[in-house]
Every structure is written in structure tokens, then in C-alpha cells.
Design brief:
Layout (H helix, E strand, L loop, with lengths): L5 E6 L2 E6 L5 E9 L2 E3 L25 E2 L16 E2 L10 H4 L3 E5 L3 E7 L6 E10 L5 E10 L3 E3 L1 E3 L2 E3 L5 E5 L4 E4 L16 E2 L5 E3 L2 E3 L3 E2 L5 E8 L5 E5 L4 E7 L6 E8 L12 E9 L8 E2 L12 E3 L5 E11 L1
Antiparallel strand pairs: 1-2, 2-3, 3-4, 5-12, 6-25, 7-8, 8-9, 9-10, 10-27, 11-26, 12-24, 13-24, 14-19, 14-21, 15-16, 15-20, 17-18, 20-23, 21-22, 22-27, 23-24
Organism: Paraburkholderia dipogonis
Protein name: Aldose 1-epimerase
């Protein structure tokens, strides 16, 4: 087995590919009926490129992140934000950057596992991807086992395609939308940092407001937003394909949705201004900064510290990806 080892599920309503690297799910094709189908998950434009380390080698689709988040603290933070040193060097956790083992495969299910290094709190992750035999639905679970009690930031990382013909972000009912505490991409990002908004159609910028409900945008940018109190399903409408894509999860565990809007704003390799994608990441975390930043107690998201995991009590986190014809 190597980084490019992949396994495929074929069922009456679609086809799903899972790769060993990161346990990443993608691409996925859902059948809509009448000869129509949709492949909504993003595959990075550089495909499989061994020049890039870890998850960047073949970033695609959806994968679990534990512990979730970057290991690099932003260079400029507002007053009151305390920088931290990450406990390791793996963006989005060890499991996002290493090979998973196939444990079991049936006609409608794949079970994968990865063991974490022996000096860490996490013992292992087990991931099950199950196709619904009667519908274009995938049910995904992540079971976490730990060596000692710990609270860790957690997220799933579904990343969706942004085609030239566009995708409408219908989103979810929510409490508030918070912008990243620092520019996501200095000199490029448009949304003002550390602000609060009520709608994705009116995000504050230095020259007015930005509407991100229809992608791709007409300006190059990279943005990260946290939708607090998101009530799933989170809905994306691919009108040209005649389909709504729905993402559902347990908000008691993962109360928010992070949006990563990648709109050609990163010009360094391997991005090269050609990555257009939308991450919709169910999360219990302070943005993707829970490993490197302590926000001030007054910040509305200060309590988003993660989930508690207990020794000898495996915890299973679930979500569902589905499509509906429109």
C-alpha cells in the first residue's frame, strides 16, 4: 500500500472513492436519475503530486481532522489573542497526513483505521463510509479512541467543487457569522478580520460588502468564516446539474460550520491561482486556530475548545452527505 492506494464503493445510486492518504473521500458521483449525475466533491487541481508533503500531496473531497487546525499561528492577531505552540507539525492532525489501513469492505461499506504515534493522546481513529442502498446518500462515522482524557478541536473537512457555471450557497439557519481574526491571505483576503455579520450576502470589507452566496466570485480571494449555531442540513445548489447537495451532522457535538472559500487567491505553488473550492467544515473549534491561539474570553467563540474524549470510552461522530434533484 502507498499514498495513492484507493478503494471504491459502487452502489445503485453512485460511486465513491476513498484513498489511503488522509482517509480522504473523493471523488464521489451521485446518480440523480434520468441519466443525470453529479460529482460535488473537490479534487485539488494538481491531482497527485509527490513533491508536496502530507495531505497536500493529493488533497481531495472530505476527510476527518483530529486534532483539527493549522499548526502555524497567524503573524498578526488582534489585541487580547494569545499565541500557542502546536504540539506537533501536522496540519489538521496526524491522520490527515498519513496512510489509513483498509479493515473491511462489503458491497456497500468501507471501514478504515489509522493508529496514532504512541506518545500522543489519541490512540486510533476508525472511519466507516456506508452507502445507502436505496438513495444517493453516504453515511460517514469517525470513532475516536484515546490513551488519556483530553479535549481536542474536531472537524470534518468536506471540500466541494466550485464549477465555472457556479454553485449557490443556500447555507443553513444560524446565529451569527464571524470572520477570521487575521487576514487569511495577507494582501489578498477581502473580508475585514475579527468582525461579525448576519448574512453571507453582506460580509464587511474595506470597500463595502461582499456577497459569497454565489461562487465563484469575480475577485481573487481566500476567506475563512465561522457560522455559529449552524442548523443543518447545509445546502449547496448546483443549478446547472439540477441538484442540491446536503450536509447533515450532530450539532450537539459540532455546533458550527467553518467556510473556507478558496477563490484563486493563493498564487504560490501548488495553488498557483487555480484552486476554486468551498470547504464546509462541521466543527467544534475556534476557527482552525484552536491549537495555536487562545482567544480573549470576551470573544463569542471563546468556548469552542473542542470535544472531550475519555479513556476506554470510544466516541463516534457522524455526518451524512446526500443529494436531491431540483
Amino acid at each position: 500500500m502507498n499514498a495513492m492506494t484507493r478503494w471504491t464503493l459502487n452502489w445503485a445510486h453512485g460511486e465513491a472513492t476513498i484513498q489511503a492518504l488522509g482517509g480522504m473521500l473523493g471523488p464521489v458521483r451521485f446518480e440523480l436519475g434520468g441519466g443525470q449525475s453529479i460529482s460535488p466533491l473537490h479534487v485539488a487541481p494538481w491531482g497527485d503530486d509527490a513533491r508536496w508533503p502530507g495531505l497536500m500531496r493529493a488533497m481531495r473531497g472530505e476527510w476527518p481532522c483530529l486534532p483539527f487546525g493549522t499548526v502555524h499561528c497567524p503573524s498578526s492577531l488582534p489585541q487580547g489573542f494569545e499565541p500557542l505552540n502546536s504540539s506537533d507539525d501536522w496540519n489538521h492532525g496526524y491522520g490527515s497526513n498519513h496512510l489509513w489501513q483498509l479493515v473491511e469492505q462489503t458491497s456497500d461499506m468501507l471501514r478504515l483505521r489509522i493508529d496514532y504515534p504512541e506518545n500522543g493522546e489519541i490512540e486510533s481513529l476508525e472511519r466507516v463510509i456506508k452507502a445507502n442502498p436505496d438513495a444517493p446518500i453516504l453515511d460517514v462515522s469517525l470513532t475516536v479512541r484515546v490513551r488519556r482524557e483530553v479535549v481536542l478541536p474536531v472537524a470534518h473537512h468536506p471540500t466541494f467543487d466550485v464549477p465555472l457555471e457556479g454553485v449557490e450557497v443556500l447555507g443553513c439557519p444560524h446565529q451569527a457569522i464571524h470572520s477570521y481574526p487575521a487576514p487569511v491571505e495577507p494582501g489578498v483576503s477581502k473580508v475585514l478580520p475579527d468582525r461579525t455579520a448576519t448574512s453571507l450576502s453582506a460580509l464587511p470589507t474595506g470597500t463595502g460588502s461582499l456577497d459569497v452566496t454565489l461562487l465563484p466570485l469575480t475577485v481573487a480571494t481566500e476567506e475563512i468564516l465561522q457560522i455559529a449555531g449552524c442548523q443543518p442540513p447545509f445546502v449547496l445548489r448546483y443549478a446547472a446539474s439540477g441538484a442540491d447537495v446536503l450536509l447533515d451532522w450532530n450539532v450537539e457535538e459540532l455546533p458550527d460550520a467553518l467556510l473556507w472559500i478558496s477563490n484563486g487567491g493563493r498564487t504560490n505553488a501548488p495553488w498557483c491561482g487555480r484552486n476554486f473550492a468551498l470547504g464546509v467544515e462541521p466543527a467544534n473549534s475556534f476557527f482552525d486556530l484552536g491549537r495555536v491561539v487562545v482567544p480573549p474570553a470576551s470573544h463569542p467563540l471563546a468556548a469552542r475548545s473542542g470535544l472531550r474524549f475519555l479513556v476506554e470510552e470510544p466516541r463516534t461522530i457522524r455526518y451524512r452527505l446526500s443529494v436531491q434533484a431540483i
